[in-house]
Every structure is written in structure tokens, then in C-alpha cells.
Fold this protein.
Amino acid sequence: MRSVMFRSDTQKRTWNNDAFFANLNIGKESLTINVKDPCGLDLIKDMIKHVDIVSESFSASVLQGWGLDYETMRQINPALVYISISGFGHTGPHKDKNTWGPTAQAMSGMTAASGVPGRDPAGWGYSYLDVSAGYMGAIGVLAAVRQAIKTGEGCHIDMSQVETGLVLVGPMLTDYLTDGKRTPSSYPNGNRSLDAKGQDAGYRGDTAPLSNIYPTAGGGKDDWVAMTVTQNGQWQKLCSLVADLQDYARLDVREITSRLCEIEGMLKKHFANRDKYTAADELTNAGIPAAPVQSGKDRVERDPQLKHRGLIAQADHPQLGKHGIQDLPYRFLDDGPDWQFTSIFPILGGNTRAILHDILGKDDAELEMLAQEDVFWPEGIPHEVHIEKSKW
Amino acid sequence: MVNRNNCAYNGLRVAWVGDQFSSFLARILHDLGADVVQVTDDVETTTSDRYVRHYQVAIPCYKSKDLRGDLRDKDLIINACREGEGWPVLNLKAMQTLQADNPRQIICTITPYGMTGPWAGRPASDLTLLAAGGFLGSCGYDDGKAAGLPIGCSGGQSNHIAGMVAAIAVQAALKQLENSPQAAGRRLDISVQHALSVSTEMSIPYWDYTHADALRHTGRHAMPRETPRWQHQAADGQYFLALPLYIDDKRFAMIKQWLDDEGIPHNLEDEKFQNADSREEHMFEIVDIFRDLVETHNTGWLFTESQRRRMPWAPINRADQCIEDSHFARYRQTVEEIGSVRRARLPFLITSAAEV
């Protein structure tokens, strides 16, 4: 993760100036301990006495291999909340299986739940379950800490990315578990909400007879507008906006599916000469849900709403200088203080001595001795490694 | 009720008005022990039974004749929009009134784009928010008949992302209140589009840090450059993920041995594949060999044998196939039952021997 994506103006690439890593880890300090050294392991156990949470995302047996299974940690600190986030969780026959985000997405059904009939799944253009398992982990940990404060009793949250996917795949799984109704063979159905028989195939929370994306002017990969028509009022507005649809205004919104092919043909013709932002403006001004398909560039450069919300904030990175990070997505309708990231970035081992001094009371002589004995950093491993090539 | 163990928020009184992009937050809070009730006015809800049972099975709903009175004493209000609307049920004035009645009450407003700004108040659907929030910018096809087609994931991810992002914020706001006995409850302004936009992993960083826009690729990460395929159709007809990432020397040696054992012809002994960097440059050729392996075997066998070699490969299941796997069906507490409804439980179990 420390060698994933560097800023284009970064000349000497190292473990400590990866732009993407910094984006994900703002607000954190860095403590390095050599766990293969018995003194290092003792330091970690001493730290466990003083912390509320231990969080890790190794494979199921790694911490156990270090002698840090939950029972050992609980003996040290009964109120500790330990969260492990792994592919399959720490129990069951698949617990030792090797997973990345895409593996968990494939396994859980998240990948298969996206695409057009008759094709391979369109899947996900990124590791959605890396992001969302992080969110779920944060929710679980916050609740567990609250519970531990009330009871004095911590717990082990054994979180599985695949199980996160099974929740996020939505009502389709509940349909199967409750009624035995398997995913229909025509599923998934592209961007539509309903399939050809008018059945809910999108599980998107709406059963819109007209919901799709249409190409707009420009012809670029993201020159599309998305639109959803659920209600009669929206349909009437659409018919008044699109000249070719005026004769269709007599249709009830539920009758759209029977004429979908010709209606969508007219919509494609209508949007073909419009910029995607103009098209979305016209539709939303008429009360019809619509939006441009936006790339990363669009959201940073063109989207006036995200600019207004403050999508990117500037922070001071010790090696990158001013560095843009994706800000917390929280805004308020009151006069209280905003929530902001602390402008701290984890430089490997940069806070080791300060943390051990502040939390464990280690003095300078003790810290120096531990450093000399390679407890903070294994012998022979350089502190800064030049990265020739980033992974992404 | 749902999970005896998840009881951190026992006693927290939550009212939920509006329904769009907010039912997952209501479910999360309920499943963590909060007393959540859905309060409606005279407008008929359009939510179908399928969604009600999935998100709201244990959440009571009642029609209010006195909204202000019914909401006054709650600790938290989830203030969302009705379907097709861009503004929440409780407007700013109504929120001010409630805050005056109960200054420590938290109000979490969830709208498509937030309460201020040029797009505030726009109506939205799951699909249009996946477009505006960047999901469609990264996901879709790059080949065949559907080449260039953005595809929005199904399942209601706008609701899910909004729910998760809001649940974190609500818990932080509750913690602030607990730490400050005199503090006022916060009025959170959650924008579903903003929540989605910070949940697209590398798409924004690619542009912000390298000025390159990611290209969508079928079934794999969007990247600014072409990449080899990850998914292939196995002999049993099911698709299989053969992830060609992080193939270090040890894994590479095991793959070669595996191919030899199966009699799959290959040229992986060629010098150009032996160094990790040059191997990466020739990944398209390696993936062609992976495809040959996948196409001639069934997914179950491929899963077992690839994982035995520490490869992060897996079948591309439907969710109903996954849940039948004994790992989940027998060994994990993946499924919960509430009355006649069976559903996947939230992926964390906060155990407690003590009463909260």
C-alpha cells in the first residue's frame, strides 16, 4: 500500500511519499516494532494495556502466529475491542483462504450482480469491499467501544469481507433466503430497474419503468446522462421536454415498458446533441431524477456541487508539502465546529519514540537501548526505500 | 431483538421520516440496539414489501397526527426525502423548531446532494446518484457488444453507502454529546453524492495526483492504461476470477508447477517471465495461459487448487450460491431470522456476557 500511487511531481518515490497511501491514512501516527524480537512483542503487549482498540487486516492466522490471539489480548486488557477484518473471517473452513477485495466481491455475489444479460459480469471497477468493509468496521468498532465503556467488557469483532458483500448485495439475497427465489437468469439487467417482464431486477430501491443511461454529445467514455422515471408526473414532464415523445404522453407510466424500445430510441436521439450537464439540468429542472455520468476528473474539475461541498481539502504533508486529500463527507446545518482531519501523516516509525514515551513512560535511555537492539526496526532493512515502479 | 449481542445503543430513541436512501441507516441503528420507529404523515409510502422486509422487518411504522409532538422527545431523527424528491421531509424551519424543543436532539438529514449548493434539492434515484457519484465512471464494459457501456452496480448501493457513512457520523455525534453534557445535538447534512464520491477508491486520486482519468475495464479495476482480463468462463459455464496481481516469485513457481501437473502447455520458463518487473510487463501473455487453465476446469476445482497455491482466486458466484457454501451455511453466523424473514446479518457481532 505504501508503493501504490505517487504524485506526478514526486521525483524520488519512497515508502513515505505515496500520495494514495497519504490520502487514506491522514490523521494517523506511525509506530514501528519488530514483532519477531521478544522485547518488541513485550512492548506491543504493554501497549495493549493502554489502548481501546486493536485493528488489523492480516490473514486469519497472522496475529495468532505472533502470540497475540484475542484471548491473550483480553487477559491483558479485558475492555479491549479487537477487530480483525479478513476475507472469510477467523472461523470456518475458508478462514485461511487468500483474498483481496476483488476476490471477496466475486465470492459474495457482488461481482455477478452487475452486468447485462448474456455477458460476463461487468463487476466492479475498483475494490468496493475494501472501502465498505472499512466503513462497516468503523461502525462496529464505535458501537463495541461504547458497549465496552458501559460493561467493562471488550470483544472480538471477527469481520469478513465476503459477509460484508452478502449484506451489501441487498434484498435479492433476502428473497432467496426467505422465499427460496433464486436470482433469475435474466438478472442482472444493465442499468435498468425492471427486466423485460417488468420484474424488479435492479434491487435499486425503485421499480422505475424507465431508468437507464443515454449517450450525450461529445462521444467520450463518460458522455452519458442517467435518468429515472418512476411517477406519472415525471413521465408527463419528460414527454413535454422531448418533442418526439409528445404523442406518448397519453401512456400511463406503467405502460412504458411495453414501448420501451421506441421510447429509448427517441431519448437517445434527443440527448445526442446535448452536453451531459445540460441534459441533466433540463431534466432535474423539470423534476425528473437525472445526473451526468462523472469520471474522477469530472468530479474534481467540473462538478459544481462537489466543489461547493469541498470534495478535496489541502493538508501539509512532511514530504509532499501541500497535499490534496478527499475530505470527510460531513457538513452541518448548525453553528458547531466542522469535523476536519488532523494534518498528520504516518511516516514509517516517525512517532515510535514519542508514543512509547507518552504511553508507556519510556525514557530516552530506554528508548535508545531498544533502538540499538533493533527492536524498532529489523537490522539490515533501510528506513527509506526508493520505489522504482508503483503498482497502480 | 435481532442480535442479542449487538446492544450498544439500547435505549437510544430514533425516529425516521422520509424513506429514500435512509433505510440502511435505520437498519444499522436498529441492529445495534436502538429503538427505531418510522414515522409517516398522510402520504402513502411507495416502498415495496421486498424492501420493507429486507431493511425494516423489525422497525415499527406508524402514521403520525402530530409530527412535532411525536419527534420532540427522540434522541435522534433520521430526516430523509420521499421518493423522487430532493428536499427532506423536515425543512430547515422544522428542524429549528425541533432543536428549540430539544436542544440535545441530533438530526441526521440525508438528501441526494446535501442541503446547500447548486444541485441541492435535485431529485435523484439510485442510478442517477451512482452516475453523479462516480460509480458509473469506473464500472462497466470495455469490450464486445457492450464496449464503452457504464454499468451501475445493483442492490441499492446509494442507500448502502449513505447508510454506512451516516452511521459513522451519527455515532461520532452521539459520542460528542456524551463527552459534553452541555453541548447541543448536531444537525448533520449528509449528501449521498458526496458519500459515494469519497467511496470510489482510486478514481479521484488518479486525477488529482497524476492527471490521468481511469478507463473502465470489464470486471476489473478502472485504470488509466489497458490491463489484462481477470475473469474467464470455466468449463462448467460459470465465470471465475483469476486475479493476476501480486504474483511474486514463490507464487509464480507454484503456478508453473501447477500448469505442468495439469499438462497445460506454457512458455513461462522463458527468461522474460523470471524477473518480477519484466513479468509484469508480459502479464497479457501470462493471463492467456490462465485463461487456458480456467476454460478446461470447473470452478470448484479451480477454487480449491488455486487457493492451495495461495492464489487469491475465486468463483464469481451469485449471492445465493455463496450463502449455500458450508463456510457460511454451517460455520458462520451469517444468516439471521426475524419472524418469517431470513436475511444476511450485519457483518459484525458485538458479543457481550453482561447486560447493557
